[in-house]
Design goal:
Layout (H helix, E strand, L loop, with lengths): L1 E2 L10 H11 L1 E4 L5 H17 L27 H8 L2 H5 L4 H11 L3 E3 L4 E5 L12 H4 L6 E6 L9 E5 L11 E2 L6 E2 L9 E3 L7 E5 L4 E4 L8 E10 L4 E2 L12 H5 L18 E2 L22
Parallel strand pairs: 1-9, 13-14
Antiparallel strand pairs: 2-10, 3-12, 4-12, 5-10, 5-12, 6-9, 6-11, 7-8
Helix pairs in contact: 1-5
């Protein structure tokens, strides 16, 4: 496995930035996001985990120590924690980090639409990872959606992270098969061209990847520490977007409920300012290997 290519050298050069994105399908930056905002958001997650007694009693919440039986997305025990962090104003505001939006504005050459369907990841030790997959089948709208994966603190390889199959976005949408882990489907990667890349993260680093780039969660191999991260998704405002991308993650609750208690209305329903082209979400892009799908195809925009 090779290390990420650090793209800080092209951060402020739109032409070079787009060239590297087209080549690799991912962009990795160090010291990109606001550290004060990141630490404040991490602190709110720590409070939630301590309140729900997921943090080991007698330990500092900031150490994120746990020997509790693992809870994963989809389990009933995860829902109260999901509801708590989905209502955090800081969680949604962090998606609008100036360093992130500035880079993406240069990459897109257009106004950036941050999808409001934001995702928080709380990964227990030794839990199943997300299988190799492409985000497009879950997001749709336009293939030119980019995901930002940002750990809420230092994330050495022992805590896991994300590995990316560099260049895999250039082929299109691959057939999938049913796999365990978040999403429930994945791309069989044996024999596919390209290099897997991964690396350590320091607080403030951020990884971005195209919706057709194959990527995979790496296992948290520690025995007793949580990994916290956030997923935010972005596209050019002129591209089509599905209605599902404008709803809260899992669509278990409405935005009015999420916004209760917020100190500011500035980021409430912000996407309504734009004349967005809404696209249908279709199951047709889920082409299963066992159903005879022979190879990748590029989805229409």
């Amino acid at each position: 496995m090779k290390p990420y290519t650090n793209s800080n050298d092209v951060l402020n050069d739109a032409v070079a930035l787009r060239k590297r994105a087209a080549r690799d399908g991912y962009l990795f930056f160090t010291d990109l996001v606001d550290l004060a905002a990141l630490r404040a958001l991490r602190g709110r997650f720590e409070e939630i985990l301590a309140r729900h007694q997921w943090i080991d009693e007698g330990t500092a919440a900031s150490d994120l120590l746990t020997t509790k039986e693992a809870v994963v997305e989809g389990m009933p025990e995860f829902i109260p924690v999901l509801e708590d962090f989905q209502r955090l104003e800081e969680f949604h505001a962090f998606a609008h980090d100036p360093g992130v939006l500035g880079m993406l504005g240069r990459l897109f050459g257009d106004t950036v639409l941050a999808h409001p369907r934001n995702i928080g990841r709380i990964v227990f030790p030794t839990t199943p990872t997300t299988p190799p997959h492409q985000d497009y089948v879950h997001i749709q709208g336009t293939p030119d959606v980019w995901t930002a994966w940002i750990p809420l603190g230092d994330c050495p390889r022992a805590l896991g992270g994300i590995q990316v199959l560099a260049g895999s976005h250039r082929v299109g949408v691959y057939p999938v098969q049913r796999m365990s882990g978040a999403g429930g489907v994945g791309v069989p990667t044996d024999g596919l061209p390209g290099d897997w890349v991964a690396g350590d993260f320091t607080a403030g680093d951020a990884l971005f990847f195209h919706s057709e780039t194959i990527h995979e969660g790496l296992p948290n191999t520690t025995s007793d520490r949580f990994r916290l991260s956030v997923d935010y998704r972005y596209q050019a405002v002129s591209k089509p977007v599905t209605e599902a991308s404008l709803l809260p993650h899992f669509n278990r609750f409405g935005w009015d409920w999420v916004y209760e208690g917020w100190q500011s209305a500035d980021l409430q329903y912000y996407w309504r300012e734009f004349d967005l082209e809404l696209a249908p979400f279709t199951r047709d892009v889920y082409r299963f290997v066992e159903d005879g799908a022979a190879g990748p195809e590029h989805p229409p925009e």
